[in-house]
Amino acid sequence: MSVPPGSADSDAIAPDSTAGKQPEEKIQRSLFGEILDWMLAPLLLLWPMSIAITYLVAKSIANQPFDRALEDNVLVLSQQVKEIDGQAITQLSNPARDILRADDLDNIYFQIKGLKGEVVDGDRDLPAPAEDDKPPAGSVQFRNAVLRGIDIRIAYSYIDLNRTGKRGPNKDPHLALVQVAETLEKRSLLANEIIKGVILPQFIILPIALALVWFALSRGLSPLAELQQRIRARRPDDLSPIDSRHVPEEITPLVKSLNEMLERLAQTIAIQKRFIADAAHQMKTPLAGMRMQSELALRQTDQHEIHQSLAQIATSSEAATRLVNQLLTLARAENLAPTNQPREQIDLNILARNVVQEWIQTSFAKKIDLGFEQDKNAVLIFGSPLMLREMISNLIDNALRYTPQAHSVTVRVRIDHDEALAILEVEDNGPGIPPAERERVFERFYRILGSNVQGSGLGLAIVREIASQHDARIQILDNPQPQDAAHPGCLFRISFQLNPYDEVAMEGLS
User: Fold this and answer.
1) How far apart are CA 166 and CA 338, in angstroms?
2) pTM assigned to the model
3) Are the C-beta atoms of residues 148 and 125 closer than 8 Å to each other?
4) Which top CATH class is 252-333?
5) Where residue 86 falls among pLDDT bands split at 50, 70, 90?
6) Please, is 217 exposed, middle or buried when counting C-beta atoms within 10 Å of its C-beta (0-12, 13-18, 19+)?
7) Secondary structure of 480-494 as H, E, C letters
8) CATH superfamily of the 339-509 domain
């Protein structure tokens, strides 16, 4: 075989470029850890969010009673403001002032402004509301502000000092501003108390919740551990189904899949055992014959008799070699998964013609007319050329073995346009196969009683296995045109799916 220029150099360089590379090992994750992560991660992420939301809610709850107290103070102060001679005055006594400012924690501030914005009473530096933020007279509003660097909460209201008098349509209301403010110490203290009451129990509940999650996961996954122990306790030769009655519902499909796999494995082992037993039985005959002939040749002194013994040894060794080759072919066909077979587009005309040419000399030696008929168009299918060649060879070999001299064997390739099938037929003029035997002849080592033809009984088993690997249908029919009544013959027909991209065949079907 010639080597393309430069291929030697590329082969020499390729190992060096990949020498340092190691296959990446996949990290095996624990199912327990995976579930625990997915359960705890959201929990630990939501916990800070829960604290933040709780704090905001606590502040809102804490503001409500204090805002109502400020509102009451504004209403009380509003009742103490009067208008006399166009001036706003207050009637607030000193004891009332002391009561207003009496608070252990918060500092209370108030302010009353007259009709022209002058401060009538209270704290002069209390900030006034914005000009555009003037609510309807009599309503109380709230706002946050800063007084002397301290955050405060202010309740304020504009009161109409002329509310009891009668105004003309062109007279403006006499508005005075009343404000009461307080610092936020009590609000913060109440909010913190609420937070402590809510958050502190969570520090106790959270570890308990984690422990319960851990315990629940351990109990939930314990059936897997028990199933593992039961499988490990099995004997190596125990392929009986696993009892799925004591496993959770979610694991039942896994156990069923394992049982199906065990069943297939048991069938495969049974087939292999039967195959080995049959092969050993079939090998006994040629090996025993070779041993007997070799011992006989060692005792002989006549050259003619020695030659006959050696000829028998050669015949037995040829039979043993053929048997071994067929056993290997059958084993390869049975163990090769369809997905692992090298499939390619094949012209069944060309493939069958090439195989027929290989058997021409054998047919001449047997004085049998071996013919070939092909379709006028290419018959394209997908398959393994090696396996299909072996299948056609076994069909031709079987036909030549059972067809007597001066008779014919015909290999035919055609297209069934009605069913969109590629048809391979091998027609012989042998003794034929009774309908009752046509299913059994595909069994390994099965031979029809009364046939004196030598063979291993594996050829048709190989044919069926290869046809099955290619999703082909195999049939045994009567020869429609036998040469004589004594040899009715039979017709082996194998039907393949046509290549859907074969435009010529598809045009013929349409």
Assistant:
1) 105
2) 0.47
3) yes
4) mainly alpha
5) confident
6) middle
7) CCCCECCECCEEEEE
8) Histidine kinase-like ATPase, C-terminal domain (3.30.565.10)
